[in-house]
Amino acid sequence: MNPLFHEVFQKTRLLSKELNLVLKEYELFASQWTVLYCVHQHEEMILTNIWRYLNVEAPTVTRTVSRLEELGWLTTYEGKDRREKIVRLSEEAVAKFPVIEASIIQFENEFLKDLTSEEQAILMGLLKKLDKERSE
């Protein structure tokens, strides 16, 4: 295995583990937060667009959205096509979102504190160069 991939996998696992610790206070997991954040950014989305955007299997996103709906974080309704499910943040989630986002921003800043702004920009550029869909 290329040591670079090993390091990327290790940092990904560490990020997820540490983010789960931050989100525990809100009874959320990192995988759930990514869905909430995605929906927040787009105001509302159809399920298909969520799993495509997040590069996650459709059944996984469907289960996560269902669970978040049960917990009161999301609301869903049918689109024009009955098979189409549209997802929005619940009113409660909209109210809580800024507090959770502030906790995450604090976590991100702490995690990246040893990288300069320029180093962060370089890392972002390098990661984007690895985007398979963009390079095809």
Which properties best describe this structure?
136 residues, three-stranded antiparallel β-sheet, 3 strands, 10% strand, Arc Repressor Mutant, subunit A, single chain, mainly alpha
Apparent shape: globular
Rg, nearest Å = 17 Å
Helix content: 55-70%
Name the average pLDDT.
93
Distance between the termini: 24 Å
Strand content: 5-15%
Q: What's the CATH topology label? A: Arc Repressor Mutant, subunit A
Encode the helix/strand succession as letters.
Answer: HHEHHEEHHH
Can you count the beta strands? 3
Largest sheet: 3 strands, antiparallel
Helix/strand-derived class? mainly alpha
Task: Please work out how many helical segments DSSP would assign.
Answer: 7
Structure overview:
With 136 residues, the protein is mainly alpha-helical. It has one domain: Winged helix-like DNA-binding domain superfamily/Winged helix DNA-binding domain (Arc Repressor Mutant, subunit A). 68% of the residues lie in helices and 10% in strands. Strand 2 and strand 3 form a beta hairpin. 14% of the residues are buried.
Blueprint of the fold:
Blueprint: H1 3-23, H2 30-42, E1 44-46, H3 47-54, H4 58-70, E2 74-78, E3 85-89, H5 91-111, H6 117-129, H7 132-135
Antiparallel strand pairs: 1-3, 2-3
Helix pairs in contact: 1-5, 3-4
Question: TL;DR of this structure?
Answer:
By secondary structure, the protein is mostly helical. Helix content is 68%, strand content 10%. Helix 3 crosses helix 4.
